[in-house]
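MODEL INPUT / OUTPUT PAIR
PAIR INDEX: 1
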Amino acid sequence: MRERLRVLAAASFYYSGLIKLALWWSGRKKGQLIILNYHNAQNYFPAQLRYLSRNYRILHLEEALEELYASPSEARVSKNKRDRRIPMVLTFDDGYLDNYTQALPLAQELQVPMTIFIIPGYVESGQYFWWLATKRLLKQIDSSKVKFDGQTYQLVNPVEKEALINTIDKHVRYASSIIERETFLTKLQQELDVSLPSRDMGGDDEDLLPMSWEQLRTMQETGLVSFGAHTVNHPLLSALTDKEELQYEIGESRRLLEQKLGRSIRTFAYPVGKAEHIGDQAVEAVKSAGYSWAVTTIEDVSTNTTDRYLLPRLPADENLHWMVMAAELTGLLGIVSRFRKKYAELFEK
């Protein structure tokens, strides 16, 4: 019911012309860039992309950042080539298969560019992503209860099941090394007598598996898809205790992508991406590895004064009705919007 009311409110803003007016007003303010952070391309994504392609000037990430940080003389040269729509970048984290099967055909149809941050270790292995593992494993358990870490959890009890999910996820998420994380996941599968899917197996979760190198190269050849690095194995960088491993995860991911794709990789996305997940050492390692820019999941818009290695992004939820997204992006659903604090500043200026 609550979501239906949000859709009705958004529809009233859209058909009354208020969203169009808000877009025009915000387009008067120059020097800002919206970077959206998608992961998957299902549900309402096609309708969202059709709306965004009509109403925003969508660019590749590197192109948009070069424009944002251009000197005044460079900006004057390109001024006549720019339309008045708000500049926007569509980024996808992790490299899910549905980026290839669903996002790419739509991007080709609409001629919309996008940037995907890739995890080479998962491209190579084809394994299920670790942050999806816990719920997937518990779905396969036949027993109504599970003993873990000295405590018994009743899976028929939603509260206890959620507590178990959180406990396991914490072990995986905050592992101090990749070996620790993978050892834990292997042991967990053995103890529960269940297994995670992989690209070779296929199955009902196929769109949640990583793309292959061949699929990445096919996307690159269209000219619509650019790539950035997202570490080799997607650890929380702030949790790693070995500085050399941290540097390896950041630098080697760039080297592997450049080797496999034959293109220079200049952008990086921090895994999970909030300030507490990054840490000062990771930022320095990104600079040392030769990246030009790095994006976070800190929710804000970028300006030419934004730190190039801590670029914010706004979360893009493919489960939102496109009119709700439209209203949120203009601040008209600001009270309930996940974007409310960020776009208030945009429309006040």
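PAIR INDEX: 2
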Amino acid sequence: MRQRLKVDPIACKGHGMCAELFPERIRLDDWGYPIIDQRGVDDALLQHARRAIAECPRNALRLAPIIEPGAHQREDPD
């Protein structure tokens, strides 16, 4: 399953560690808050993403599955 990085903007306090640890997908805005690249995190970068998540002092980062259009399962009518 493909995943992308997400940030909780309420929890984030703009420490900027994530951008230092994972510059391939995270850059900082003018106030030091992360701007997350919405591309999926491929296997080659997954270790770097997990490190940035683990080192976030506010636990504001996470990996979320990328839901492809048409991939939703239908509920059974029963």
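PAIR 2 NOTE: The mean pLDDT is 91.
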